[in-house]
Amino acid sequence: KNEPLVMGIETSCDETGVGIVRGHELLADAIASSVDEHARFGGVVPEVASRAHLEAMVPTVQRALDDAGVTLADLDGIAVTAGPGLAGALMVGVGAAKAYSIATGVPIYGVNHLSAHIAVDTLENGPIPEPAIGLLVSGGHSTIMMVEDLAGKVTQLGASIDDAAGEAFDKVARLLGLPFPGGPYIDRAAKEGDRAYVDFPRGLSAAKDQEKHRYDFSFSGLKTAVARWIEARRADGEDVPVNDVAAAFQEAVCDVLTRKAILAAKEHGVETVLLGGGVAANSRLRALATERAEAAGLVLRYPRPKLCTDNGAMVAALGSHLVAAGVAPSVIDFPANSSMD
Ligand code: KG4
Ligand code: ZN
Hints:
α7 crosses α9 (242-267). β2 (15-22) and β3 (25-33) form a beta hairpin. The protein has helices spanning 35-39, 46-68, 87-104, 113-119, 121-125, 165-175, 183-190, 220-235, 242-267, 283-295, 305-308, 312-324; strands at residues 5-10, 15-22, 25-33, 77-83, 108-112, 132-137, 142-149, 153-159, 272-276, 299-301. It folds into 2 domains: 5-120 and 311-324, Nucleotidyltransferase, domain 5; 130-303, ATPase, nucleotide binding domain (Nucleotidyltransferase, domain 5), CATH 3.30.420.40. It has 12 helices and 10 strands.
């Protein structure tokens, strides 16, 4: 087959990911994570993440090549996350990708992490119909993206004005005494809880917010509301019903995320909505988005949970799309850009 064979390298946060794809076919998805080293701090420590990337980089590339049964010389492209993300962490991946590119002569593509979260869906569901709306929700970002052209024109319609959705999951998990990262634990606890137990606030949903913040999110008020609710319970000497609070909090997040993403699709005449990012692994978000997309006559797509969280396959998927679209490679001195949008 002559579809492009591309290796993708991801180091924007705490996952050292190396993926290899041919066209839309996933051949390898090697990951080393430093999440356990951050757990005791309750959040990712940038310096620790950078060092872990440096240690894991070469062995993870080697493992991906072995899994895919290819060599560096076979590659048509090397894609790497150039931003957004933690500056020091990004530099490790970008530096490694440039070294591999220079040593082998394989063209390099510095890519956007958010576009890669969208592109990964091609590995599961094939080419993305354009235009599409992407709801990207992770520990670092909560954005509604307009995907006019995955190879060139991906723009933000809205974003969180404070905490990212995943950050809210992680902070509320901490309040409830659940481990880090808290998203999966809240997801699990919520399955045994009552979604209507407390009616927590839906940020930026008031009529007055519809002009300026129509497609934006806010989760810090929600986190504070949960904290206050828990404090009041404890002050009364009562136990906190963890499953119910988890379910009610999760409902508030998923309600506003799905409502705004579907509104964006309807108002822009777009028929396809994609979910991506770590929080897109959330079972309630998937169920509610499915329900609401169906009611609105929209097509909803999302990849399997393992491809929602950070990985190298998503970067390789975007790289393969760029090669196939005939996009020119990056010039070798491109920078890591922690605030890329
Ligand atoms: O995309 P990702 O792996 O890394 C970033 O780019 O941030 O997302 C990690 C985030 C964490 O906040 C984690 O708690 C959240 O995704 N997460 C979830 C679930 N699985 C991961 N949040 C809610 N429900 C889940 N099942
Ligand atoms: Zn991410």
